[in-house]
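#struct-pred

JT: dropping the chains for the assembly here, can someone run the whole complex?
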Amino acid sequence: MSTELSDSVIITLVLNGNQQAYAMLVNRYQQFVFTLVLRIVPSREEAEEIAQDVFVKAYKSLAGFNGTSKFSTWLYTIANNTALSFLRKKKIPLQSLDNEQTMFEADSKDSGMQANLIEQKSKSHMLTSAIALLSADDAHIITLFYKAEQTLEEIGQILGIENSAVKVRLFRARNRLKEKLETNFKQELIDIR
Amino acid sequence: MQNEDTMNLRLWQYIDGTCSAAEKAAVEQLIATDNLWKENYTALIQVQQLLQQSSLDAPSLRFTKNVMESIAKESIAPATKIYINNNIIKGLAAVFIGIVSVFVIYAFLQVKFDFAPADDKTLIPEHNFDYSVLFNNDWVNVVLALNMILGLFLLDQYLTGKKRKMRQQRG
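RK: done, full complex below.
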């Protein structure tokens, strides 16, 4: 019953002092936020801590949410900034495919995964494994587009880039994902066709 | 390679439904008649379906409880629009513009426009414009220097922002 309330109604309840209503927003978006953060910060424990921090930050600044964008877009912007800020603090470079070292690491992961391929039959597992082989940039944009259900404009807003740049990044990311799937899961792809 | 990129780009636009009706018809025609296009389309549509069917990662079961415990100690910060009074900002702007206007008017009142009588052969009348009246004061020089520094600072900010944007786009 309570899950049917719209985001804006819940936000009004929280702003009017009903702190417990915030749990509905947390339940609604926790998987989206956690998945997004996990695409940037590979450790599950750290990703969970950051995701919790995202919800606490969002709560503290809830009064500043002016409703010009969707609540989810606003929340994912906080998630993106918090995860990137965590990487900067820990001095972990954000993986990018322009980086040769990243390409090398991805290739190493490719070969290391061969032994487990037979066990990875489920579609979801196959896709998750293939996404894990992508750079954080690619995995993040794919997750925003397909899982977080954000439009290209909204993704641009979250990442702070132009709409045209989002299109190019998404195009490249999907092509790289296709390559990873074809390289590592060729037989599985034929089986499910 | 470039051809394959172009093909993939057109196919993704077709799959996403972001291409025009004419482009859609053209791509459909290519898929129906060209084996390479058909093969690539099948591969891309499979990736698309996998992405649409994939599930999200779930955090631990205590996640919501942890967040609620954390926010119990916190309070919601007031929105900036509440504690920033627009009238105060407008007042500050009015004072600033007033000071600048007074300064400009005062400066021009000090100038002695002493135009020489127009000569038949001279198109532009000569005048004794005494610039020293404007620039003989130390305070004026200080204000000019400050403005120059401020201008350079703003230019630096603008160029840094532009550089960051370009790097992100290349990203």
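JT: nice. Chain A is about 70% helix and 0% strand. Confidence is low (pLDDT under 50) at residues 96-121 of chain A.
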